[in-house]
Amino acid sequence: MEHFITGLPKLELHLHIEGTLEPELMFALGQRNGVALPWPDVDSLRAAYEFDGLQSFLDLYYLGASVLIHEQDFFDLTWAYLERCVADHVVHVEIFFDPQTHTARGVPFATVLGGIERALQAGEAAFGISWRLIMSFLRHLSEEAAFATLAEATPYLARLHGVGLDSGEQGNPPSKFARVFARCRELGLPVVAHAGEEGPADYIWQAIRELGVQRIDHGVRCVEDPALLSYLADTRLPLTVCPLSNVRLRVFDQMAHHNVLRLLEQGLCVTVNSDDPAYFGGYLGANFQALADGLGASQEQLCRLSLNAVEASWLSLADKVRLTRDIRLHAALHGVSLH
Ligand code: ADE
Ligand code: ZN
């Protein structure tokens, strides 16, 4: 199975680049930039990765991001992630960055974008990994702050492929950002939003009806509303599910209770993603492996999850046809039949 998973062409559609900051790089950048961290060493930092929910993780994640200051830091961060993609046979990535996490500390928008984009371009040239970049608003901040960030991003909009919404979900419903998302759509940017991770099924409806999303990030609490489940199955509006994240953040108490395969069998366009892999115990390959080990996912189901990611991606039709063929070829070579 391990060999099958490694060779399966995979796409990542839900990844926060700040969530790929490994403890070793966090300490190296802290030293390079003279930023003190509240842990004496890498091991004690790792020992702090015991989360009782989304907020306890976010507190650590925003603190860790404080070592990212220069364009080269954002390049190094993104490059390290792309090297993991090569090892996992990830062929296409659509990644989030949180500009407000950095601009609030005085790091210019152009510095953040420039470093991430330069690494993605270099990764495409060196490894053939295609990419899209999604600017994400922090939902614990105000609508006004989101509009200010959109204004700051205006000179760079042609370099962004979409807009997202992340951070603490409870008490920050999608409706809070209906106006700023309407403006983003007017500007021609496709939009996505985290919803139904810790928040209720109604937040998923809000993201659909009030934000006009193309995909839902997480969305696993859709099971609480049968009408929503039917809607998602009928429309195939994709959910970017993150299995290891959900267990680490206690959305499910163990992998054996995760609902992603049930959703797959009910006809939803669910995909597998790693969210913040440096914090949650593994990159995309490890998330596929966790579904095999913890949920008994078959090779056929893993192939369908990867095919769903092709369908849910923002690739051109020609690229979708090519990747569909590559995944089907991988299945056929392993005697897996896809119907
Ligand atoms: N930011 C980074 N990871 C996140 C997650 N899993 N949910 C919400 N905001 C996030
Ligand atoms: Zn996320």
From TrEMBL:
Binding site for Zn(2+): 14, 16, 194, 275
EC number: 3.5.4.2
Site (Important for catalytic activity) location in chain: 218
Residues binding substrate: 276
Record-linked Gene3D superfamilies: Metal-dependent hydrolases
Cofactor field: Zn(2+)
Swiss-Prot/TrEMBL keywords: Hydrolase, Metal-binding, Nucleotide metabolism, Zinc
Coiled coil: none
GO terms of molecular function: hydrolase activity
Catalyzed reaction equations: adenine + H2O + H(+) = hypoxanthine + NH4(+)
Keyword Iron: no
Database matches in CDD domains: ADA
HAMAP family membership: Adenine_deaminase
Recorded family membership: Belongs to the metallo-dependent hydrolases superfamily. Adenosine and AMP deaminases family. Adenine deaminase type 2 subfamily.
Function: Catalyzes the hydrolytic deamination of adenine to hypoxanthine. Plays an important role in the purine salvage pathway and in nitrogen catabolism.
Designated name of the protein: Adenine deaminase
Organism the protein comes from: Aeromonas caviae (Aeromonas punctata)
